[in-house]
């Protein structure tokens, strides 16, 4: 009977992950607050905001700046303008500027030209208002040589002629309005301005006078932007960009990713050099390039449409969702699908968020088991580290909550299995896979290091694949803030750095820092390339035993401290052998990475990697795992035995107080969850309802 139940849960799990692309499938309806609940919540938000004296620049809750600083607020305000008012050009400009700020290199160069061509030019009929219904197509990636230059000057007989009036500008760029586009990202939000009304008035004064663009930006503000953007076109790297763009034609992001993967095993050094030049070019454009224009447009929109939005159903929907965000998350909000694994204090399940249908991983840790092992600090440390790290290369924390007996972590569901599983299936990884996985692991480690954490548990088992093949680091239970006296082995033997197990003359453990992670990375990279961890191999075991080690564990430690691995020329080319050798340097002060991750990224082994595409997440993975149960069988995972010690353990008030600050909601994750839900409703044109709606509760109705 138990096997039958496991089979049913396996089938449900496979069905759930296979239907993700079909859209969210909620199981319960969103709860709507009463007027009294909403009023109480709004007052609470205002009080909490007033207490944040260390952040005087925080926008006033529920006002324009505050609303657009939330991804969900911007999404619903944008939807109101486009769907209800029919005025889209200016808000599209703001959205494009936000996207521009998140780009680098060639993507920033292309996006700069796109914004210029579509928003900072004159409309075809200068005296007419921009049409809200015009949807004339424009190239998706301007920068093409066919596009007109919109610089503030034209070249005539080799001399510069300044554009100082509307007529001249309109003759250069007589194109129709840009197409109306909808927000398709789940993380688009606007940084609130910290300017005073006087500052804004001064910017508006600089905006007066010709030339005037289609979005109401003109005068010295427009001239300043166009002058700076002109430098981009005059750079050698920009011409390379145009040639590359014309060659690739109209390939979309997926086709570009596939093309990059096909080229992974061939030399891309010339292309990489071009990317580096373009990166330098884009750095010449200041982060504030469009700031004044964006402020002018935002003020315009505020004056025209903010009052209307506040009286709309879109605003009501926003407040209802934000109230739901701040309510206490409980275990009943999630529905268990299948056991995925077992940790030190409990099980990891695949689960579904009832209201949105979003799939997550639920890590359950029993408070009694934590107390028995005196591991409260480990549990608290993992929760804090997960909350601190927000990176596409590390499994993210979405929610943390608790019950009387357990604490819960809701995390990204990585359905593709871990790299150890796939390594056991393949024997070793291809060059393209080694580069891709290695690059993402480097960026994941750097994300931890940037926040002052050392990971200490890097191994293939802790590198998980998503359904699309993207790899992320997981299990941050041993990650810890670096301190001057940090010492003691942590993690998995064979991936430990020498300084973790080295002792001085008095027998005291050595102190260590971030560099232990780069040694572990060297172990993993060598394992990806050859299929064998150099310090867990038979060679390492024999080396240690021959030197007098009496156990397998001691032999591995001895090899880690004293053996210099050899790299088979049949599996390791010259660059692969060199990077592994330098990462596995016994001396942490000379180990590759001592000067930061960029030192590793610039090693010849990674010369074929387009770091821009990796960092921006545009590079498609070289391997997509099957939509299957990429995990051990539930019977193999097993369950915890409630022995005598467990039954006799009692949780006191002091034990409960340890978890007073455990609860957590990732605002960005919540916004993304709701926006994904709303996008599906927009695309289908109908409300997204649960398959089975329980209407017995009067407070539960559809938002």
Task: Give a verbal description of the structure.
With 703 residues, this protein is an alpha+beta fold. It has three domains: 2-23 and 328-413 and 638-684, 2-Layer Sandwich (Phosphorylase Kinase, domain 1), CATH 3.30.200; 59-323, no CATH class; 419-615, Transferase(Phosphotransferase), domain 1, CATH 1.10.510.10. Helices cover 46% and strands 8% of the residues. The chain has 29 helices and twelve strands. The strands form four sheets. It has a six-stranded antiparallel sheet. A two-stranded antiparallel ribbon has the order 1-2. A two-stranded antiparallel ribbon has the order 8-11. A hairpin with a 2-residue loop joins β1 (153-156) and β2. The longest helix has 20 residues, at 291-310. The radius of gyration is 28 Å and the shape is globular. It starts with a helix and ends in a 19-residue tail after the last helix. It comes from Discostella pseudostelligera. Residues 607-674 form the AGC-kinase C-terminal domain. Residues 334-606 form the Protein kinase domain. ATP binds at residue 363.
């Amino acid at each position: 009977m138990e096997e039958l139940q496991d089979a049913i849960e396996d089938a449900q799990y496979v069905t759930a992950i296979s239907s993700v692309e079909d859209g969210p499938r909620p199981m319960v309806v969103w709860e709507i607050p009463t007027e009294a609940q909403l009023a109480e919540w709004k007052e609470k938000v205002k009080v909490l905001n007033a207490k944040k004296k260390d952040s005087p620049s925080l926008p006033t809750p529920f006002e324009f700046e505050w609303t657009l600083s939330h991804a969900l607020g911007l999404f619903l305000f944008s939807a109101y303008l486009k769907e209800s008012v029919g005025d889209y050009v200016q808000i599209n400009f703001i959205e494009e500027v936000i996207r521009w700020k998140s780009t680098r290199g060639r993507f920033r160069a292309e996006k700069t030209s796109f914004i210029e061509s579509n928003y900072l030019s004159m409309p075809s009929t200068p005296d007419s208002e921009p049409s809200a219904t015009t949807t004339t197509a424009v190239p998706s990636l301007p920068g093409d040589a066919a596009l007109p230059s919109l610089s503030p000057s034209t070249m005539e007989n080799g001399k510069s002629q300044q554009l100082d009036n509307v007529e001249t500008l309109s003759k250069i760029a007589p194109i129709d309005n840009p197409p109306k586009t909808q927000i398709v990202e789940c993380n688009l939000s606007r940084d609130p301005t910290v300017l005073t009304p006087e500052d804004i008035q001064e910017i508006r004064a600089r905006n007066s006078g010709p030339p005037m663009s289609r979005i109401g930006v003109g005068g010295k503000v427009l001239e300043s932007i166009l002058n700076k953007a002109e430098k981009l076109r005059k750079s050698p790297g920009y011409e390379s960009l145009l040639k590359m763009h014309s060659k690739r034609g109209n390939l979309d992001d997926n086709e570009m990713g596939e093309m990059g993967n096909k080229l992974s095993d061939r030399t891309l050094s010339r292309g990489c050099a071009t990317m580096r030049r373009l990166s330098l070019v884009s750095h010449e454009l200041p982060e504030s390039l469009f700031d004044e224009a964006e402020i002018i447009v935002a003020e315009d929109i505020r004056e025209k449409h903010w009052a209307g939005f506040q009286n709309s159903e879109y605003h009501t929907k926003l407040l209802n969702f934000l109230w739901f965000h701040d309510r206490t998350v409980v275990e009943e909000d999630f529905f268990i699908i299948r056991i995925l694994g077992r940790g030190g204090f409990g099980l990891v399940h695949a689960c579904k968020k009832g209201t949105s249908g979003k799939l997550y991983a639920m890590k359950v840790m029993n408070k009694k088991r934590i107390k028995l092992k005196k591991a409260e600090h480990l549990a608290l440390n993992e929760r804090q580290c997960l909350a601190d790290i927000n990176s596409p290369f590390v499994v993210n924390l979405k929610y943390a909550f608790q019950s009387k007996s357990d604490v819960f972590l809701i995390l990204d569901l990585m359905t593709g299995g871990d790299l150890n599983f796939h390594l056991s299936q393949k024997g070793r990884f291809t060059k393209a896979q080694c580069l891709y996985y290695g690059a993402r692991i480097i960026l994941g480690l750097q994300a931890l290091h940037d926040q002052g954490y050392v990971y200490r548990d890097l191994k293939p088992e802790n590198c998980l694949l998503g359904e699309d093949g993207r790899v992320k680091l997981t299990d941050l239970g041993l990650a810890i803030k670096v301190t001057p006296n940090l010492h003691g082995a942590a993690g998995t033997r064979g991936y430990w750095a020498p300084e973790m197990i080295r002792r001085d003359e008095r027998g005291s453990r050595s102190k260590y820092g971030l560099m232990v992670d780069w040694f572990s990375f060297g172990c993993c990279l060598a394992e990806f390339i050859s299929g064998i961890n150099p310090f867990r191999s038979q060679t390492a075991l024999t080396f240690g035993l021959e030197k007098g080690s009496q156990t397998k564990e001691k032999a591995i430690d001895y090899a880690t401290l004293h053996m210099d691995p050899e790299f088979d020329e049949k599996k390791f080319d010259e660059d692969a052998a060199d990077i592994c050798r330098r990462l596995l340097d016994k001396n942490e002060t000379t180990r590759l990475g001592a000067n930061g991750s960029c030192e590793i990224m610039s090693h010849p082994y990674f010369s074929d990697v387009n770091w821009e595409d990796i960092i921006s997440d545009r590079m498609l993975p070289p391997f997509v795992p099957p939509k299957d149960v990429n995990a051990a069988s539930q019977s193999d995972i097993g369950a915890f035995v409630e022995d005598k010690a467990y039954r006799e353990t009692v949780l006191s008030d002091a034990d409960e107080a340890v978890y007073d600050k455990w609860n957590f909601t990732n605002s960005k994750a919540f916004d993304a969850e709701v926006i994904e839900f709303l996008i599906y409703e927009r695309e289908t044109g109908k409300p997204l309802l649960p398959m089975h709606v329980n209407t017995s509760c009067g407070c539960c109705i559809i938002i």
